[in-house]
Design brief:
- This protein folds into two domains: 4-57, 2-Layer Sandwich (Alpha-Beta Plaits); 61-212, 3-Layer(aba) Sandwich (Aminopeptidase).
- Helices cover 33% and strands 29% of the residues.
- The protein contains seven helices and eleven strands.
- The chain has helices at residues 32-40, 72-80, 91-100, 113-124, 164-178, 191-195, 203-212, and strands spanning 4-6, 23-27, 44-48, 51-55, 60-63, 84-87, 128-135, 138-148, 151-159, 183-187, 199-201.
- The longest helix is centred in the C-terminal third of the chain and has 15 residues, at 164-178.
- The protein starts with a strand and ends with a helix.
Length: 215
């Protein structure tokens, strides 16, 4: 299938026309309007060099919140209140830490300065959210993503202290359950998220779930 090149027109091709690896289009921008259209369409951006790449993989890696798996050790950690949990108290600090953290098997980060600024604006517009873990007044872990309807699209997480990001993520999922969220998009496979209950579903099912949950 052809790879679509985007220009200034606010448009994405049908997700069914994505490459086998999920790559759908290249180019465009990270304006609020384009980001909103992307997430409502089940599409997310990922930088490669100077180019914005837009993806919609099939299958899609997701967590159904009622399938969240919390190990006994994490249950104990949550009960101990070893960390302080907050929401949207340090969004830019969270994404900055996600940008700077070293990840095994990755030479760099897809979170460019343009991405940081775009998602900060998306946060200020009420779409992007962060969850934070604090210890002794210091931000030691967290995650961020996009909330639309009853779906949360996870983007990235970081941890400076063992289990801090997991604590923030699990605490946030528990809050999202109380708010009626029915689906958490994890985008692509990671062993870490699989251990928390994430699994693959077909792309058509994912798109139907977005529509059914007010995205």
């Amino acid at each position: 299938m052809p790879l679509f090149a985007l220009d200034n027109k606010l448009y994405f091709p049908p997700v069914q026309q994505a490459e086998p690896d999920g790559l759908l289009a290249v180019g465009g921008d990270l304006s609020l309007a384009r980001l909103e259209l992307a997430y409502r369409s089940g599409i997310f951006p990922w930088y490669e060099g100077q180019y914005i790449l837009w993806w919609c993989p099939d299958p899609r890696f997701v967590i159904f919140p009622d399938e969240l798996r919390v190990s006994k050790s994490m249950q104990q950690l949550l009960r101990k209140n070893s960390f302080k949990f907050t929401i949207n108290k340090a969004f830019r600090e969270v994404i900055s830490n996600c940008q700077q953290i070293n990840r095994e098997g990755q030479d760099g980060t897809w979170i460019t300065t343009d991405v940081l600024n775009a998602y900060t604006a998306f946060h200020e517009a009420g779409f992007a959210h962060s969850a934070e873990a604090w210890k002794d007044g210091e931000l030691v872990g967290g995650c961020y993503g996009v909330r639309m309807g009853n779906v949360f699209f996870g983007e990235s997480m970081f941890s400076k202290v063992s289990n801090a990001s997991k604590f923030a993520f699990i605490s946030y999922v528990q809050q999202l359950i109380r708010e009626g969220v029915k689906l958490i998009d994890c985008q692509v496979y990671t062993e870490h998220l699989e251990s928390l209950g994430a699994r693959m579903i077909p792309r058509p099912e994912f798109i139907q779930l977005l529509q059914a949950n007010g995205v």
